[in-house]
């Protein structure tokens, strides 16, 4: 009861929780669109998500619910690198999900956490406590074991995931960095990332997928329409919670939240799409990663509850 009360009264924990729930949900809606409905056009799905995000941002600003600066050349220059990481993260993530099952996708993406630790030290000068690092190492080792035990291993999909880990880590770190540089709020960062990424996404979609999306026959399916709509709406919510979580918490906490939700994704993914063969190695890896995730969660909870000024 005290833990629930603490989470509700602590904005950072609440936002991290909302990010985790949204991230789990959107993964399965994306998977349904890409594989269940055979809409094998991940760039087009990315474009749809960007359009919906910009639509929500503009409408909410028009009605006075949110505020952010109008398009500004100086801000565009400052946020170009973040926008590049944004589009690479989204495109590579959807491409990887289309080629791999959910448990493997979730397990291998845990590698991004170690990259965040190294990136925080190099770019932000932050040193992660030893017990946190140990829990992350065990989490990643468990993920690698789980991936190794997946007999449906896809090389191309795994390369996409590895690339996605690096750009995701860079994205999480640069959000905190660019927020301080530009003084933009969450909605401003979202607006600039989406609008700067859209031209390249339109070009990429036209070059690689135009013929396919022109001939796709499932647009009239209500199930497809619902999943595509939910995917696009939740992409807006997910990006919002990622920005907000990275602002209120450290990039490492945001990344770890993503890894913890991956456990639930993995468990659900074992049964939802029927494309996973459970093996001893897969089971061992998932158990090890789960224990490490709970250990890390306890460490962060304990640190927050007993937070005191650090000396020296």
UniProtKB/TrEMBL annotation:
Keywords: Membrane, Transmembrane, Transmembrane helix. It comes from the Eukaryota. Residues 21-296 form the Sugar phosphate transporter domain. It is a multi-pass membrane protein. InterPro entries: Sugar_P_trans_dom (IPR004853), TPT_transporter (IPR050186). The keyword Endoplasmic reticulum does not apply. It is found in: Membrane. It holds the Pfam family TPT. The chain crosses the membrane at residues 12-29, 41-59, 79-98, 159-176, 188-207, 222-246, 267-296. GO terms for molecular function: antiporter activity; nucleotide-sugar transmembrane transporter activity. Its main location: membrane. One of its GO terms (cellular component) is membrane. GO terms for biological process: nucleotide-sugar transmembrane transport. This is Sugar phosphate transporter domain-containing protein. It comes from Dictyostelium purpureum (Slime mold).
């Amino acid at each position: 009861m005290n833990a629930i009360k603490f989470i509700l009264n602590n904005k950072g924990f609440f936002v991290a929780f909302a990010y985790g729930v949204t991230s789990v949900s959107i993964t399965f809606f994306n998977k349904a669109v890409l594989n269940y409905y055979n809409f094998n056009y991940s760039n087009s799905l990315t474009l749809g998500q960007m359009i919906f995000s910009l639509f929500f941002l503009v409408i909410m600003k028009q009605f006075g619910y949110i505020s952010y600066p109008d398009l500004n050349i100086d801000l565009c220059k400052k946020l170009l690198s973040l926008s590049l990481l944004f589009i690479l993260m989204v495109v590579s993530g959807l491409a990887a999900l289309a080629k791999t099952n959910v448990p493997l996708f979730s397990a291998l993406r845990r590698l991004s956490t170690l990259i965040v630790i190294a990136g925080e030290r190099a770019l932000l000068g932050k040193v992660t406590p030893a017990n946190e690092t140990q829990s992350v190492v065990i989490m990643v080792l468990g993920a690698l074991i789980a991936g190794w035990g997946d007999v449906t291993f896809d090389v191309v999909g795994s390369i996409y995931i590895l690339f996605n880990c690096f750009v995701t880590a860079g994205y999480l770190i640069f959000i905190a960095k660019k927020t301080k540089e530009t003084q933009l709020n969450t909605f401003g960062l979202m607006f600039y990332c989406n609008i700067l990424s859209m031209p390249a996404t339109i070009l990429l979609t036209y070059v690689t997928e135009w013929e396919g999306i022109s001939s796709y026959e499932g647009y009239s399916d209500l199930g497809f329409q619902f999943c595509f709509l939910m995917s696009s709406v939740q992409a807006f919510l997910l990006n919002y919670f990622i920005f907000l979580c990275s602002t209120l918490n450290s990039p490492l906490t945001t990344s770890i939240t993503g890894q913890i939700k991956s456990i639930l994704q993995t468990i659900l993914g074992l049964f939802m799409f029927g494309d996973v063969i459970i093996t001893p190695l897969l089971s061992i890896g998932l158990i090890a990663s789960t224990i490490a995730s709970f250990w890390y969660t306890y460490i962060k909870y304990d640190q927050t509850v007993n937070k005191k000024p650090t000396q020296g």
